[in-house]
Amino acid sequence: MTRSITLKRRTLVAGLGLLSAASIIGRSANAGPVKSTGESADMTAAMPQVSQFKLGSLKFTVVRDGANVLEKPWETFGSNQRPETVQALLAENFLPTDKLLNTYAPAVIDTGKDVVLVDTGFGAAMRGKGAGMLLDGLKAAGYSPDQITAVALTHMHGDHIGGLMENGAPTFPNARYFGGQVEYDFWTDKAREGTPGEGNQKSVMANVVPIADRMTFLKEGDQIVSGMTAMLAPGHTPGHMVFHVESDGEQLVMTGDAANHYVLSLQRPDWEVRFDMDKAQAARTRNRIFDMIAKDRIAFLGYHMPFPAVGFLEKKDIGFRYVPKTYQFDL
Ligand SMILES: [Zn+2]
Known about the structure:
Helix content: 25-40%
InterPro entries: MBL_superfamily_lactonases (IPR051013), Metallo-B-lactamas (IPR001279), RibonucZ/Hydroxyglut_hydro (IPR036866)
CATH topology of the largest domain: Metallo-beta-lactamase, Chain A
Largest sheet: 7 strands, mixed
Keywords: Hydrolase, Metal-binding, Signal, Zinc
CATH architecture of the largest domain: 4-Layer Sandwich
Number of helices: 8
Bound molecules: zinc ion
GO molecular function: hydrolase activity; metal ion binding
Number of strands: 18
Strand order of the largest sheet: 1-2-5-6-7-10-11
CATH superfamily of the largest domain: Ribonuclease Z/Hydroxyacylglutathione hydrolase-like
Number of domains: 2
Structural class: alpha+beta
Domain Metallo-beta-lactamase: 103-304
Pfam families: Lactamase_B (PF00753)
């Protein structure tokens, strides 16, 4: 589905010329003039990518909210390792050793009754700066913001909650909201003021607090909609959760930020990650959640996995081999 949507859109862009193409892709065109030929990097950056697949009777739509380049990967992943060790693992996996590409993958689960959005991307704060393309992606897939009936948050970092509000009003006016109780309590606690968490607290105040009166606060084992269950997976943040989704015997776990790089965090789950607030707890959680996924041979959607962010895991002596999805859900 990724391919077919991309192709269709390219055909449209080529066929309709600059102005119409810009109106089709809306705000995402603001990165510059839309090129009508070729597959330039500009075009990839400016156009939202969307991937759709079915899990049982559920329709998933994954949107690439955007991407950013992270320099010196060893300062973020394997921050307790020697830089050469991190670079060697990247090289072994055919990846550049001096920088990496971080992507963002909010997703919609259409149950037929509910349209559930999981995480919201950066929103307006990063629009035109390489991210904030969720709404354009949803539009390309045929969803308008008022069709979203539920929004569930794995945790409350800016790249997951930034899209909740738009021009001072809720982006998804008809949605009810689901977020972790522990997570919400942590970020809204006055104790965060004057700490490294203060910046993110401001983001929670601006994006989550205004819709908190419509939020159901989740604990371990709570159901969001039928077949979708929240599980505590702390470490990255104190109240981080993953969502287990099941339909007609098929399963997928939305793992949020339990692992944030398909090689560095999955092949070496014990390595420290700068973004993890409690690094030891995050490593324990990573091993627990991904052990389960590997053992049960079920799919997972990782918010920062390479787009479309869905894959499987093979357990190795240390860590896991990431196997990106291909046509498993199409047959
Ligand atoms: Zn994240």
